[in-house]
Structures are given as structure tokens and as C-alpha cells.
Write a structure and sequence with these properties.
Layout (H helix, E strand, L loop, with lengths): L67 H18 L2 E7 L3 H11 L6 E5 L18 E4 L3 H7 L4 E2 L3 E4 L2 H13 L4 E5 L1 E9 L2 E9 H4 L11 E10 L10 H8 L14 H11 L1 E4 L2 E3 L2 H7 L9 H17 L33
Parallel strand pairs: 1-2, 1-9, 2-6, 9-11
Antiparallel strand pairs: 3-5, 4-5, 7-8, 8-9, 10-11
Helix pairs in contact: 2-4, 2-9, 7-8, 7-9
Keywords: Chloroplast, Iron, Metal-binding, NAD, Plastid, Thiamine biosynthesis, Transferase
GO molecular function: cysteine-dependent adenosine diphosphate thiazole synthase activity; iron ion binding
EC number: 2.4.2.60
């Protein structure tokens, strides 16, 4: 987040922000009577809407009947089927912030690649629901706006950057497109407690309900579960209670030497560095997003989000390369044809018995 500005207190209650004339103001003065809106991108369509009545009578609306046990069975059966399906998967993405979501979105374009997303929070999205200091707008520096064009997210265009009117517009759009794909499953409220490591290679994650992970010290032993994976993408964000957990665990087991932590804010240096340093840090594990800054001591970038998106994309193509799939890293995107190979367990209902 951007550093908070220091504000001097004043004893003059009549002095307003617009009356104050600083001695070293380098921006364009703002008119007190009128705020001029930024010029919108020419690609934004004119919205024309007409109100149509719902396809049912709101005055006498009534739901179809259902047994409470059916609701329970539907949720349990489908979730457990997903757990069976993704217990052994191609890619596990740990952390569903802007980098993790961008990575999973890019991976999901290949229907032959199965993707499980692990997110400790009930609400995925990380810090991308807001901009900086609880403000709503999201700033994205060019040319990362091309990713927004692909998603169909509108923005106000400036010379070197664009502004999305609310960060939640990006987050909700990428989530809706990603989670609709059949080869992706989001396991939210699930924590990655540890890594599976075999013969010096990361081979999956150790999982548990997030609320259980938070209460190990208050209860007796509550053993975890596992997800095996050919590739793990760690996008746990900057350091914190659940932040940078992937690289911190690598250090604690001796697979990397240090986690120096991110340096002070420098947007111009930080975003380029995050994308450039996104890589497979140890065999089987790719690090993306702000977790890259933690392991490399790169500067933080504050409330600009383009590096998260492009770092996530790069991580996806590094994962595709590790899987032997077409990818943009070695220039094989669009070469030949990827045939769908994924068969979801949920597609086979013959062996499922309703109790």
C-alpha cells in the first residue's frame, strides 16, 4: 500500500483544502467549483438500457419445493467429488490474489491442464478488491492494459497508464471467466499448511481448512490433507500471517538460503523486477506476484497492479513449459493443436449413489 502522507494540524477552521496554496505545488490546480472527469477510453460503448419485467410474477412469487437433505447432499457430493478429482492435478496455484488469478486464468485456456486454486480466505481476490489506502480505483500501467482488453474490462485511458473505475471490476471479471471453465476448481477457506517435497522437488501441497489451521494451538492434533501436483505456483503475496508462506517454508527446510523481504517503494523499478524475476525458484515450484519481492529483496510497488497480472501470466507459461505444453516462454504458443485430455470425476456420475 502507498505510504500515508503526514498532515499538519491547523487552528484555522475556515481554511479549506482548496484555499490552501502550497509553496511547491507541481501539479495542475484543481478548480474548487468543478472537478473535470478524466477522458474515457474510446473503446467504451454507449450504454443504452430499457427496463423489462422479470420472467415471473413478483406479486405472487413461490419457489419450487425441496428437501433440506437434498441441499446438503448436493453440496457435499459435488465438493467431495472435486476433492477426489484434484487430489492429483497438473497445477496447484496457492493464493488467489491478482497474480494467482491471472496465472490460473492463463493456464485454464488449455483444457487439457487441470488447475486447483488454494485460497485461505473465504473471499478470493487478495488485495485486488481495492486500490491503495482503501480507495476503489485500480491503476494499471501500460502495456498491461492489453490483458484488460482481453478480459473485456473497461477503463479510463491516460498516456502511460489506465484506470479501472473500481478494482472489484477487474477481480470479479477475471473470477467469473476463470471459475466458469471446467478444468478449474477454487478451494477457498483452505490453507496450504506445508509443501510435499520428494527427492528435492516440490510435488504438491499439504492442505487444511483455514479455520482449523488457525486453531491448531487450541485443539488436539488435527491432521491435514494433501494435493499432489506436477507444478506448484506460489502466489502467497507479501509477508504477513498467511503471506509469503511458500518461500518461507522453502527457507525453513533448507531449499533456499534466505528470504530478505521486499525493499521500500519504487514503482518504476518494482513492477519490471516482479515480472523479470518470476521463475521456477526450486524444482517443481514457481513463484509469482509480491512473493517474488520477498525472496529477491525487490522494491514494493504500492497500488499499481499491472505487474501482478503479467507476473501471473508469465508464471502460467512457465508452468506450461514444465508440463511440456505449448507456451510463450519457448515460443511454441499456437504451434500445433492442444487436444483436450482432461476427464473430470464429476462428469462420471454412474458410481455416485444418492443415500
Amino acid at each position: 500500500m502507498a505510504a500515508m502522507a503526514t498532515t499538519a494540524l491547523t487552528s484555522n477552521p475556515k481554511l479549506s483544502f482548496f484555499d490552501h496554496k502550497p509553496t511547491s505545488f507541481h501539479g495542475k490546480p484543481v478548480s474548487q467549483s468543478r472537478l473535470t472527469p478524466t477522458k474515457s477510453s474510446s473503446k467504451q460503448p454507449t450504454i443504452s438500457m430499457s427496463l423489462t419485467p422479470p420472467p415471473y410474477d413478483l406479486q405472487s412469487f413461490k419457489f419450487q419445493p425441496i428437501k433440506e437433505s437434498i441441499v446438503s447432499r448436493e453440496m457435499t457430493r459435488r465438493y467431495m467429488t472435486d476433492m477426489i478429482t484434484y487430489a492429483d492435478t497438473d497445477v496447484v496455484v496457492v493464493g488467489a490474489g491478482s497474480a494467482g488469478l491471472s496465472c490460473a486464468y492463463e493456464l485454464s485456456k488449455n483444457p487439457a491442464v487441470s488447475v486447483a486454486i488454494i485460497e485461505q480466505s473465504v473471499s478470493p481476490g487478495g488485495g485486488a478488491w481495492l486500490g491503495g489506502q482503501l480507495f476503489s480505483a485500480m491503476v494499471v500501467r501500460k502495456p498491461a492494459h492489453l490483458f484488460l482488453d482481453e478480459l473485456g474490462v473497461d477503463y479510463d485511458e491516460q498516456e502511460h497508464y489506465v484506470v479501472i473505475k473500481h478494482a472489484a471490476l477487474f477481480t470479479s471479471t477475471i473470477m467469473s471467466k476463470l471459475l466458469a471453465r471446467p478444468n478449474v476448481k477454487l478451494f477457498n477457506a483452505v490453507a496450504a499448511e506445508d509443501l510435499i517435497v520428494k527427492e528435492g522437488r516440490v510435488a504438491g501441497v499439504v492442505t487444511n481448512w483455514a479455520l482449523v489451521s488457525m486453531n491448531h494451538d487450541t485443539q488436539s492434533c488435527m491432521d491435514p490433507n494433501v494435493m499432489e501436483a506436477k507444478v506448484v505456483v506460489s502466489s502467497c503475496g507479501h509477508d504477513g500471517p498467511f503471506g509469503a508462506t511458500g518461500v518461507k517454508r522453502l527457507k525453513s527446510i533448507g531449499m533456499i538460503d534466505s528470504v530478505p523481504g521486499m525493499k521500500a517503494l519504487d514503482m518504476n523499478t518494482a513492477e519490471d523486477a516482479i515480472v523479470r524475476l518470476t521463475r521456477e525458484i526450486v524444482p517443481g515450484m514457481i513463484v509469482t506476484g509480491m512473493e517474488v519481492a520477498e525472496i529477491d529483496g525487490a522494491p514494493r510497488m504500492g497500488p499499481t497492479f499491472g505487474a501482478m497480472m503479467i507476473s501471473g501470466q508469465k508464471a502460467a507459461h512457465l508452468a506450461l513449459k514444465a508440463l511440456g505444453r505449448n507456451n510463450a516462454i519457448d515460443g511454441t504458443c499456437g504451434v500445433g493443436r492442444e487436444e483436450p485430455e482432461l476427464v473430470l470425476a464429476s462428469a462420471n456420475t454412474e458410481d455416485i449413489v444418492d443415500a
